[in-house]
Amino acid sequence: MLPIAALMFFNEGQLTHLAPVDILILALYFAVVVFIGFYVKGSTNTSEQFFLAGREMSAWIAGLSFVSANLGSLELMGWAGAAYQYGMLATHWYWIGAIPAMLFLGIVMMPFYYISKTHSVPGYLQLRFGEGSRAIAAVSFGLMTILMSGVNMYAMALVMKVILGWDISFSIWVGAATVALYVMLGGLRSAIINEVLQFVLIWAGAALIPILGLVEAGGWTNLKAQIAVNVGSTDYTHLWTTLGHFRDNPMGVHWTGIVFGLGFVVSFGYWTTDFLVVQRVLSANNLRAAKMAPVIGAAFKMAVPFIVIVPGLLALAVLKNPDGSVLHLVGENAVNAAHPYSYNEVLPLMLIRYCGPGLLGLGITALVAGFMSGMAGNVSAFSTVWTYDIYGAFINKKASDKHYVFMGRLSTVVGMIVSILTAYLVAHAASIMDYVQALFSFFIAPLFGTVVLGMLWKRATRAGGFWGLLIGTASSIGMWLYTTYGGQVALARIALSGDARPMAETLYRALWAWLICVGVTVVVSYCTKPFTDTQLSGLVYGATPIPDDGAQTLFQKPLFWAVVVITVFFILNIVFF
Amino acid sequence: MADGTGRGERLSIWFFVGFLTLIYGLVLAPYGAWEWFGHHEAPTVLNNLHPTFWWGSFMLLFGAFYTIKFRPGKD
């Protein structure tokens, strides 16, 4: 969902260097995360402990981990750059592109994931639709995850090279070895603890930028006025007013694409079926915690634009050349002597602007923590899906629990080695990054169609689920090939307008792939023999008595807090309309 | 049971959160004070507000609160 490939084009030469106090802060972080890995190893002896953190996490830990797993450094840097480029439109990826889906996961879907006692999303598909659907989901997820981990690794190395001048191989190997060590030792538990730490560190390292920036700009109202003067338009500080037509906004999107493509399909697909994030919630210690975790995550997610979008907007107002004129950041391909910085350098530039030694180390530590927890998230999810849904399902079905834990640790190391190879592959052929990103987009939308029908529609059959998922995914790949090689004509057909830009293509392609998946699932299901209610018990709405989550008072009810969060969500959208 | 780290463990996840931020506060607050009172401020925008000292002090307090509240053996 974000322009990782753009980071490839950082300009030459490092932006800054670390003082001894910065290195001390970074070294303390590494020491603590490695210590945590060794510390929790004793509590990761069974497969449930290793892969699901013993299902012992409170709602707060699972919720912070859930939102943090997605809050990587590329996410921060990419969307800060997008905020500079597109203004507040980038906020949609944090609000409508996340909040409704997270609440839907917590209130509607989590009970089925949780009471089915599945270990993974492909595991749920196996229970609901059989081995075929599980195989498609597991293989595609495993491949996608491990490749993404490699991309993440290379991107980290590249960012460190650009900001600090570090050697690419040094960053790759130090990052990978540290992550492999603590995930191999402590499994998901290590990864979750690291994610909670990372969440705190990211706020500690990044929150000063918007705080000092707003002080410098003279408050929000003055910031908006300065942006309007500098860019010659008031559109950059509105969420919805420019979405009436594709050509009215720099993203080239229409509100239908944002609401239905992003807000419904892409967002619901990612937040409710991507096992990387769902795995965090499955670690909750009871049903109420499992329902509350995404609601807590959503509340924090709503606050993230403060440290991501606001710095991008601030850069539009406060960045100046030495002669006092406005400093214009440009697209990657337009970087030259007159315009030395690109959009994607917004966050580091703002960090350097306000943070001297010590605070700079904190900011860099936050970035490193974000990268490492992103890798840890990918590799822990990969080892779970590999062990349960590929190795345990198709290669060695009757091994002991101890053997599966061994396989989990082994696959963590092997997964990391494959990631390192991917990182070097990307270093030699940048276009691979684009393909990996595209790969991610192929599976998410159809998978959401299959899972949501599986949970909410009793009539969906085994064949319906399998063929819906297969044809939905194939259609997404087909549309991607069509728009990649078909030029503007193809883009106009998929995104419904000649003024559409590539961002719109992703949203509409997801929407069509989801509709095709749902259509095929419905048609094939009506042509095939349905399951009985008994067979669907614990898996589908209407065939499953939902157990009481134990909430006694209004303030203990996840639904109450979900209503609070969605109310704040609507208020924010109206305020920044 | 320590929250988040497993059955039988003594250090909770919140203790680690508090400990790391406390250590960072202990590094940043004195360093910020040295910058401020020794006139060694880095040439950053708004360095007259002494952000390293204040942010370090905030982290020190936050970290101390969590470290004490979730210290091992409290329960």
Explained architecture:
The complex is a heterodimer of chains A (577) and B (75). Chain A has 577 residues and is an all-alpha fold. Chain A has a single domain (4-437), classed as Sodium/glucose cotransporter (Up-down Bundle). In chain A, 71% of the residues lie in helices and 0% in strands. Chain A has helices at residues 20-40, 47-52, 59-68, 73-86, 99-115, 121-129, 131-164, 168-206, 208-217, 220-231, 255-273, 275-282, 287-303, 305-318, 346-354, 359-395, 401-428, 431-456, 462-495, 502-527, 533-536, 558-575. Chain B has one domain (13-69). In chain B, 59% of the residues lie in helices and 0% in strands. Chain B starts with 12 loop residues before the first helix and ends in a 6-residue tail after the last helix. Classes of the chains: A mainly alpha (577), B mainly alpha (75). Chain A binds chain B through residues 21, 24-25, 28-29, 32, 36, 39-40, 42-44, 49, 54, 56-58, 61, 189, 192-193, 196-197, 200-201, 204, 208, 212, 215-216, 318, 352-359, 362, and chain B through 1, 3-9, 11, 13, 16-17, 19-21, 23-24, 27-28, 31-32, 35, 41-47, 49, 51-52, 55-56, 59.
